[in-house]
């Protein structure tokens, strides 16, 4: 028996985005303007570069750094609009320039401070990775927020890496559009990280034996392991039914002196990138199957699923999208 009472939520009509938002060109165009043309969006880290670019829903973001100054534009066909750029620690965010709207600190609340602390570990950058999904970007966001799929979708990867009693050792926090969840690592996994730490003397932002990810609306999450490794992720919409998951691994060390240490760091980073790739390859067919199945329930608007206590943040995301799209006030 679970220690927690089951509290399932059957959402009311209107609490969800219409199903069609997952495949129509109209919904995609609306999101391009009202979500990606307005919100603060994660752009990357100026770690070993002075230029950052991103493409989301047909909008092209171009940022430059010159000394301490940052500037940039958003290109949409012929239209070129200036960007407002701000940082949270090392993490660079931008949005199409506008009057009013939340500051970056407001947008990240209540996680700004923690993200800034974690971003100090954006050291030793590895090559960015992009993996294409034949699914709407929101299907990937929902997948990320589904804390329950570890045992079913990742039985040989994530599931054995986290504490078997996840009912007690999974902590999910909800704060409106943003949220955080963390799993206690299994003893064996925590031991593996401790050995790695002894060899690499990793930089740690916290002494925490967790796998954690912090989601920031609309399409950013920062995954971390052991209070050391940080992996910023962003889901870039490409078309109504396709998207790219982009991520970059940082394996921060406090000292990399000898060739042997450097070689060990390189091989560990390669191993972690391969492991993350394996996990994402397990998520991909699930998201793609959801994408293909979704129109099949379009004629059944009352079918919205039943959500458990820890799955409320998927509903939170839908409601944040509805607010951003201006469909509810
Ligand atoms: Fe997954």
Automatic annotation (TrEMBL):
<dbReference type="Pfam" id="PF00848">
    <property type="entry name" value="Ring_hydroxyl_A"/>
</dbReference>
<protein>
    <recommendedName>
        <fullName>Aromatic-ring-hydroxylating dioxygenase alpha subunit C-terminal domain-containing protein</fullName>
    </recommendedName>
</protein>
<dbReference type="InterPro" id="IPR001663">
    <property type="entry name" value="Rng_hydr_dOase-A"/>
</dbReference>
<dbReference type="InterPro" id="IPR015879">
    <property type="entry name" value="Ring_hydroxy_dOase_asu_C_dom"/>
</dbReference>
<feature type="domain" description="Aromatic-ring-hydroxylating dioxygenase alpha subunit C-terminal">
    <location>
        <begin position="131"/>
        <end position="326"/>
    </location>
</feature>
């Amino acid at each position: 028996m679970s220690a927690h009472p089951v509290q399932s939520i059957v959402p009311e009509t209107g609490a969800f985005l219409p199903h069609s938002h997952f495949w129509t060109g109209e919904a995609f165009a609306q999101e391009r303007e009202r979500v990606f043309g307005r919100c603060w969006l994660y752009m990357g880290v100026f770690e070993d570069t002075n230029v950052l670019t991103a493409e989301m829903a047909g909008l092209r973001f171009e940022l430059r750094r010159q000394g301490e100054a940052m500037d940039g534009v958003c290109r949409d066909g012929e239209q070129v609009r200036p960007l407002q750029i701000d940082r949270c620690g090392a993490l660079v965010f931008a949005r199409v320039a506008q009057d009013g709207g939340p500051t970056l600190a407001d947008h990240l609340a209540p996680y700004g401070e923690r993200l800034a602390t974690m971003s100090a570990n954006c050291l030793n950058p590895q090559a960015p990775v992009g993996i294409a999904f034949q699914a709407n970007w929101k299907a990937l966001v929902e997948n990320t927020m589904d804390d329950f799929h570890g045992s079913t979708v990742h039985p040989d990867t994530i599931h054995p890496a986290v504490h078997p009693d996840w009912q007690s050792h999974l902590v999910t926090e909800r704060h409106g559009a943003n949220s955080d969840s963390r799993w206690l690592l299994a003893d064996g996994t925590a031991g593996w990280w401790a050995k790695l730490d002894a060899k690499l003397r990793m930089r740690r932002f916290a002494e925490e034996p967790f796998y954690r990810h912090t989601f920031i609306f609309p399409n950013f999450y920062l995954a971390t392991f052991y209070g050391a490794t940080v992996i910023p992720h962003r889901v870039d919409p490409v078309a109504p039914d396709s998207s790219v998951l982009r991520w970059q691994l940082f394996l921060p060390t406090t000292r990399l002196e000898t060739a042997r240490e450097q070689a060990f760091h390189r091989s560990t980073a390669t191993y972690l990138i391969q492991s993350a790739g394996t996990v994402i390859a397990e998520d991909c067919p699930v998201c793609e199957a959801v994408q293909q199945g979704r129109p099949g329930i379009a004629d059944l608007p009352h079918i919205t699923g039943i959500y458990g206590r820890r799955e409320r943040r998927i509903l939170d995301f839908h409601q944040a999208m509805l607010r951003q799209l201006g469909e509810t006030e």
